[in-house]
């Protein structure tokens, strides 16, 4: 029974659904201030109350009631600063936390919409604006706000990183619009409805998802199926030939499943072999798909490659989520998962291990594939960030040396990650 608490429950506070005025245009600070001073409602709830997604087309209760105004293109509504930030959406220093605050917690909707628009995909695929917005809002809502790490901001961050990779010369020259659409959608949905605990936890608590997906890529399968569910529900691609929308669903799955960190070595050795033999041919659709898988994998775990101020925040959040799982395990007398025991680990130790055994090997190969300034920047941050964590955890510096020679060695301890 306990496990159900972590199932894909939609935690939408029902009571707020009818409060919002139907036509609430623009996110005004006065509204929030008024509401805050009016009562004792905590600020966080007020923020959710007025969250943009809810007044745009809002709740699931209103689904199917298309009193949405298709003319409210997102660009018209968000405030100037967020809009200004989007001009630098391709920058590796993009501060997604700030962007999320400026958009009142709607970074995923705004960012993804903006990118789809910027790439001309809305026009090219003749996407219905109402359906698209509804899809994006539902995607954002299906991420769990209360997860310290696996929430919609992480999804937005991965989407932004994906955008940076899609613009790398090798990819930009060869990817089709279809590839780009898939890459962005996969990034935005890759952790959809993440319960905030990892697969071993779901298995040992007999969660129904573990049974449903036979203990294999349980979370990733669920993220994919959830994304497909929303695509079908919103009929986003209903204007495309059936075979195309099926192809989108299938390829979305293949991309999302590639983010299963327990299969990293499999993907990495394939990538390595291609690079060694120099036989990646980006004119070939299946090779392009493989490169997209690698790009998404990089985007998913690129936190340690960001500037320290951003990277550090992610590290704190992910460790908080791990330790939270560890606390639940402790409370229920389950075996504590690796990296999840707050008494045996520190943020620094978790990060150093993650960087050494997971991130460095992946980004080293990525830099071989795409030897650009961005790759060098990422490796530069990675080195600096690792040094910063090492300085806080002097005894761990020895183990990072070992890792260089045997990148795959600590496979077991990675199980807890993502
Ligand atoms: C999944 O793993 C659990 C625990 O090891 C086991 O009891 C269960 O039979 C497995 N389920 C499947 C479908 O393999
Ligand atoms: C594309 O690559 C795949 C996998 O390497 C190969 O099986 C296929 O024949 C290639 N297709 C073309 C058209 O070259
Ligand atoms: Zn992720």
Question: Can you characterise this structure?
Answer:
This protein has 418 residues and is an all-alpha fold. It folds into three domains: 3-62, no CATH class; 76-300, Catalytic domain of cyclic nucleotide phosphodiesterase 4b2b; 311-414, no CATH class. It has 22 helices and no strands. Helix 9 runs antiparallel to helix 15, helix 10 runs antiparallel to helix 12 and helix 15 packs antiparallel against helix 16 (242-257). The longest helix has 24 residues, at 308-331. Mean pLDDT is 82; it is low at 1-76 and 396-418. It comes from Cyprinus carpio (Common carp). Zn(2+) 2 binds at residue 191. InterPro entries: HD/PDEase_dom, PDEase, PDEase_catalytic_dom, PDEase_catalytic_dom_sf, PDEase_CS. Residues 74-396 form the PDEase domain.
Please give the structural blueprint.
Blueprint: H1 29-38, H2 43-49, H3 52-56, H4 74-77, H5 80-86, H6 96-102, H7 107-118, H8 121-124, H9 129-142, H10 152-166, H11 169-174, H12 177-189, H13 199-204, H14 208-212, H15 218-234, H16 242-257, H17 264-277, H18 285-300, H19 308-331, H20 347-369, H21 373-392, H22 397-405
Helix pairs in contact: 7-9, 7-10, 7-12, 9-15, 10-12, 10-18, 12-16, 12-18, 15-16, 16-18, 17-20, 20-21, 20-22
The protein binds 2-acetamido-2-deoxy-beta-D-glucopyranose (2 copies) and zinc ion.
The site of one 2-acetamido-2-deoxy-beta-D-glucopyranose (NAG) has 4 residues, from loops.
| Helix share bin | 55-70%
Which spans of ≥5 residues are poorly predicted at pLDDT below 50?
A: 1-76, 396-418
Reading the helices and strands in chain order gives: HHHHHHHHHHHHHHHHHHHHHH
First-last Cα distance = 23 Å
Number of domains: 3
CATH class of the largest domain: Mainly Alpha
Rg to the nearest angstrom?
Answer: 21 Å
> Total number of helical segments?
22
Main β sheet profile: none
What is the number of E strands?
A: 0
Task: Please identify which CATH superfamily of the largest domain we are dealing with.
Answer: 3'5'-cyclic nucleotide phosphodiesterase, catalytic domain
Helix/strand-derived category reads mainly alpha
Catalytic activity: 3',5'-cyclic AMP + H2O = AMP + H(+)
Biased composition (Low complexity): 390-400
Family: Belongs to the cyclic nucleotide phosphodiesterase family. PDE7 subfamily.
Protein name: 3',5'-cyclic-AMP phosphodiesterase
